[in-house]
């Protein structure tokens, strides 16, 4: 049976120019897998709490020490469950402190390409902010500082990013190789899981 694939456009809200990615994800992927894909596509490092919001429902990682009756388990909810409810746009928030809100829009549902492994990275524009930079206002201040050698925070901002990431921040350069490798790793785990399940069902 051929996989059905959702092509998703992921945009980081309140960014100008718009920071966005396009990915292709199996409709039977869990929202936890979609979280992993978004992390990889955007270049986030999965340091913080996160959740999806769709049609007034929230999905994330359940914590037995902090029960929340209004939060559904992302690992138990498949993307197709949202699509079957005719949800074509929903939200993903990463890091409740910096509050990075992503707008996830369904562009198409189609048959998987023969021989392709999913999920997969397609394309995008502009580099996502560094972790822990203070949300949109902090990111804008960071960009101003690194762009102007005469800015009073230029040296500190540059050294901070170098210390955390080992390279200078270029807002125009996406590390697409890293995104593809990380998403390919997810696709390989998914393929291995499907193969194992098929063997057990024989």
TrEMBL record:
> Do you know which Gene3D superfamilies this protein is assigned to?
MM3350-like (3.10.290.30)
**Residues covered by the Plasmid pRiA4b Orf3-like domain:** 5-176
Which Pfam family, giving just one, matches this sequence? PRiA4_ORF3
Record InterPro entries: MM3350-like_sf, Plasmid_pRiA4b_Orf3-like
The organism's place on the tree of life at top rank: Bacteria
Name of the molecule in the record: Plasmid pRiA4b ORF-3 family protein
Organism classification, top ranks?
A: Bacteria, Pseudomonadati, Pseudomonadota, Alphaproteobacteria, Sphingomonadales
């Amino acid at each position: 049976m051929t996989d059905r694939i959702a092509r998703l456009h992921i945009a980081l809200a309140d960014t100008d120019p718009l920071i966005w990615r396009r990915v292709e994800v199996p409709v039977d992927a869990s929202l936890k897998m979609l979280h992993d894909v978004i992390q990889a596509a955007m270049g986030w490092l999965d340091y913080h709490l996160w959740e999806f919001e769709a049609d007034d429902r929230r999905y994330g990682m359940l914590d037995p020490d902090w029960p929340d009756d209004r939060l559904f388990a992302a690992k138990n909810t498949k993307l197709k469950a949202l699509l079957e409810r005719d949800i074509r746009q929903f939200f993903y928030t990463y890091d409740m402190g910096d509050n990075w809100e992503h707008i996830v829009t369904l562009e198409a549902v189609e048959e998987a390409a023969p021989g392709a492994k999913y999920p997969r990275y397609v394309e995008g524009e502009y580099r996502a902010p560094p972790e822990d930079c203070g949300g949109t206002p902090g990111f804008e201040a960071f960009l101003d500082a690194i762009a102007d050698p005469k800015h009073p925070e230029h040296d500190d901002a540059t050294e901070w990013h170098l210390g955390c990431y080992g390279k200078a921040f270029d807002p125009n350069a996406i590390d697409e190789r890293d995104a593809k490798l990380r998403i390919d790793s997810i696709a390989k785990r998914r393929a291995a899981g499907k193969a194992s399940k098929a063997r057990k069902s024989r």
